[in-house]
Amino acid sequence: MNDIAFILIVFFLVCASVEPEDGRSQVIPRSEKNEAQQDSQSIEVGLTTATVIIDGTPYRLNEFQPRIQQMLAQKKTEAERVVVVKSQADVPYEHWIAMTEIIERAGGIITLLLEEEQTINLN
Fold it and tell me: How far apart are CA 33 and CA 80, in angstroms?
């Protein structure tokens, strides 16, 4: 009985380690800089299903790559090349991966804007 339990444990360990990972690795920017300074220098990219918003200006999907390459070519330091990516909930994962790959190939360093903490005043 112990032999069967041992074999099952080994089987599940091997199966768990063979499972392929989804996605890809990300380079996370260093957090040594002042957050306010980094926010003023960074480029904000908002992803929707039909458009990409760069620093508040909407672009069609086919206009995104040349525009982000142009913007990042003007940046000299690593801190200036930080790109904050915001994504709506309905954006497909494949679309998000494609857009972040374009940013990384253009020389951008991606960071994610997670859901911000909000204070609600109930009167």
Answer: 11
Instruction: Give me the sheet containing 109-112, strands edge to edge.
Output: 57-60, 51-54, 43-47, 82-87, 109-112
Please tell me the total number of residues recorded for the chain in this structure.
Answer: 123
Short-list 111, 106, 110, CA closest to 69: 106
Position 67, amino acid: R
- The CATH number that applies at residue 70 is 3.30.420.270
* Most distant CA atoms of the chain, gap in Å: 68
Q: State pLDDT tens for residues 107-118.
A: 888 887 665 555
| 11-66 per-position pLDDT tens digit | 888 777 665 666 666 555 555 544 544 455 788 999 888 889 998 889 988 888 99
Given pLDDT bands bounded at 50, 70 and 90, which one contains residue 76? Answer: confident
Q: Is residue 99 part of a domain?
A: yes
Residue among 42, 26, 23, 35 nearest 97 (CA): 23
Pairing label, strands 109-112, 82-87: parallel
